[in-house]
Specification:
353 residues; Hemopexin; single chain; 8-stranded mixed sheet; 5 helices; 21 strands; 14% helix; globular; mainly beta
């Protein structure tokens, strides 16, 4: 009886801590409040020293720089973007990005600048079961966009899917962007909840990372611009290095809310296939792929904290099309848009295409 009572108390404690963590997750941090109130673009918010850059690389790149700074570059203008779940660069553009909302919202693609200025909204003739991330890439001279319909908090779906689009002419955007093809897949070891996807053109595969605070699993699917004629199987290929707390995190975050604040919520691989970024509710992390190394090897090594953003609920991160900067934002109406720049690239471009 005593043992049963202990089990009951333990279960109650876990439930209370879980509820506490969830509520704390949505609190607006003082730092975010300050950024929003200041509304000062180009305001430096966070600075980090990067692991030694490569000496023969330009210092304005992440490869050649030994430091990086995070700036507030604006706020999301589109009132319809309230649950931002993914960002991806518009290929061939300097400062334009694709954006999506997650489940419960209309199936739409948004185009915005790195200041958050709304450029266009495109209808997508498909359902939005739970869009959680998107990525863009170039292959064989064509630009593509892929949406990951991979969210599954309760792990109840037997299949997930990826929606592929050809990037339209950005000077004459259509009102509706048709789905080129859909890839339906299942995980080899059962349903998973994934909010982070990225495309490696070099390795010709799509990587998917589960939303787990510890032991986040990495799955792989082949990259193809043709529709498969069967359900694919996502193969488990590795494990993401643990996304750890930092000295800047508060004590309650480290002790009580680790499982809620640190799971990966977004991911991107740069166009050169040399760097990956992963975001969670407190930080952005930078992974370097060494020459001759696979992404599975690179993602299993301890990453470097690239930015401590402390936004309300960050579920979106992306490299710029030229790989020279990183942009990230959060759920919530008029959420802040942050840009991370390497050392000598310290003047964020605030407009243009």
């Amino acid at each position: 009886m005593f043992k049963g009572l202990l089990c009951l108390l333990s279960l109650l404690m876990m439930t209370l801590l879980g509820s506490f963590g969830c509520s704390l997750q949505y609190q607006t941090d003082r730092a975010e409040y300050r950024w929003l109130q200041a509304k000062r673009v180009n305001l430096a918010l966070h600075n980090v020293e990067l692991d030694g850059g490569i000496t023969n690389e330009p210092s304005e790149t992440f490869a050649g720089s030994q430091s990086a700074s995070t700036y507030l570059t604006g706020q999301i203008e589109a009132q319809a973007i309230t649950e931002l779940s993914g960002l991806a660069p518009v290929r061939g553009s300097k400062n334009l990005y694709w954006a999506i909302n997650d489940s419960g919202n209309r199936p739409e693609l948004f185009v915005m600048t790195n200041t958050g200025k709304h450029v266009a909204t495109l209808d997508v003739p498909a359902s939005n079961r739970d869009w959680e991330d998107l990525a863009s890439f170039e292959i064989d001279g064509e630009s593509w966009l892929v949406i990951g319909e991979t969210g599954d908090n309760l792990r109840r779906y037997s299949t997930s899917s990826l929606l592929f689009f050809k990037q339209p002419d950005m000077t004459d955007l259509p009102r509706t962007l048709p789905v080129h093809h859909r890839v339906v897949f299942e995980y080899e070891d059962g349903a998973q909840n994934v909010e982070s996807i990225a495309v490696s053109v070099k390795e010709q595969r799509i990587l998917l990372v589960t939303k787990d605070a510890v032991s986040a699993k990495i799955y792989s699917l082949p990259l193809s611009t043709a529709a498969p004629n069967h359900i694919l199987k996502a193969v488990r290929v590795g494990q993401l290095a643990e996304l750890r707390s930092t000295e800047e995190d508060k004590l309650w975050e480290k002790l009580l809310a680790k499982r809620f604040l640190l799971p990966p919520t977004a991911m991107d691989i740069d166009a050169d296939d040399r760097f990956a970024v992963v975001a969670n509710y407190r930080h952005a992390y930078l992974f370097r792929r060494q020459p001759g190394e696979s992404w599975i090897q690179a993602l299993s090594r301890k990453p470097q904290v690239l930015s401590t953003h402390r936004m309300q609920q960050s579920e979106s991160i992306a490299f710029s099309a030229d790989s020279g900067r990183v942009i990230l934002s959060s759920e919530g109406r008029n959420a802040p848009v942050l840009t991370v720049l390497p050392a000598n690239n310290q003047k964020p471009a605030l407009s243009g295409s």
